[in-house]
Amino acid sequence: MSDVFISYARSTEAQARQVAEALRALGYGVWRDDELPVHRAYADVIAERLNAAKAVVVVWSAEAAKSEWVRSEAESARGDRKLVQLTVDGAKLPMPFDQIQCADLTGWTGDTQAPGWLKVLGSIADLTKQSAQAPAEKPAEPTMPARPLSVCVLPFANMSGDPEQEYFSDGVSEDIITDLSKVSALSVVSRNSAFQFKGKHVDLRQVARQLGVSHVLEGSVRKAGNRVRITAQLIEATHDSHIWAERYDRDLTDIFAVQDEISQAIVAALRLKLLPAEKSAIERRGTSNPDAYNLYLKARNLWISGNSDRRGLEEIVRLCQRVTEIDGAYAYAWVLMALAQMTLHLRHGIAQETGQAAADHALRLDANLAEAHAVKAIYFTANERFDDGNAEIGLALRLDPTSYDVNLNAGYVNFRQKRLAEAARYFEAAAALMDTSFSAPAMMTTCLVAIGDDRGAERAARMTLERAERAVAQDQSNGQAMGFVAGAMATLGDEARTREWIARALRIDPDNRSMRYNLACALALNLGDSEGAIDLLTPYFPSVTRSELNHIAIDPDMERLRDHPRFKALIAEAEARLGSAGPPPSP
To answer: Per the confidence metrics, is the pTM higher than 0.90?
Structure first.
């Protein structure tokens, strides 16, 4: 087991990673929860690692102070007398931790002689010595680590003059993040952390301090017809100095070569050695066809927008079908098609395709495609084959623990089996991995309300509200987002605005079934309006699917309706129809 356990909130992942790397450089064994479990319950692994650690470092922040998980881990460490506290933003610590010494690492950039860092090292040295019952003599002074090389790839600006080309510049940015993440000697900030600065004028040194990185990459993309211009510059953050910059004017057919050149130029500028396997991994693409790549990015952008109404999902399927006609070996397109088809089948009763054939095809192309296993996990779980679902999601987590879709689906697999605390953790991980996702924090809200974590639920609801409002601002017809805005406001106790948003949503997109369900949840659970909730559900039930009915049976948001005569009648009618008529008709 590791010497040091690190507890932190998702918003300070970069700082937690920086602390972990610095400690590892000193020879300490370090564990933090980026090592997601595979075949065991996540909570069990956390408890085991927490108990076995000789020191528990709690990275306090404003978010961590509100987190049930961080406070619980800190309380356990305090009871075992192995708590080491540090703060990265000077936030007020919750009681009783505000009465315990805490090192201040606000704005820490890796300075090994910083007083706060030396205080942390001293506490860890004392605790590990006591836990191991080492000799009393003073240990040899460890060699202080050099500042680790780390980079944040800011979202490349869309300079095409067409907001609809935003998907392309975002896709290029994401691919460069993915490529650089394959370089073992370089630490790369996650997409979610980097994309919080999208569209903002930022001070690069402040970004570096906030994320705890040594370098920042920024750039722009201009796409016009079959030509693309990409500019990029790498900046050393401490002195705000440019160490590499380049402009590429190419045909769109050269887009992959440009991405490879940028990644390899950054490696060279940082004087890192790129291992042969890493070079091969960077150059390995899902497709070599730029038209297929362009259409895939469009489909992926629709998927991560969070609008899972029937029209949007069908558009994703159409785009992915076109991609696979152009390049039938593009496994990522097959698995995205599978995700959309599965959602259409489970939520909208489309019986023709369940997503399983597309997922199986993706796995024949790439047996290690985590998202394809996650599709199968959801399908098995929806059909109450829980052992198969657990096995598939466990494999998916092992293959890619940092995938948004895998973590989101892991949340649903656990939610469906009423493991709400574990589900909340996976939904929180998904929310941290995708800054546009409002469904992940909304589901986290439901879980935390159900288990009685009111402060955590409020935090999740505020995250949902901010993201869903942003989505509506970008697309005023996004009914799914409007439903989640109303739900978040209801959780936060704003009844007047909740009802305003419900009326607005129904006026703009009255046929959006998923939106109706979420609005009903808001009325039933948070506002206690059972009649209003059932009025919303009445048009929903005639086309309810078996999967949706199973979800309703365990959804804690529906608890206040279960004994209502009208609700019981709707359930009975749906059970009779589904039991005798097979799959419901397409709405």
So the answer is: no
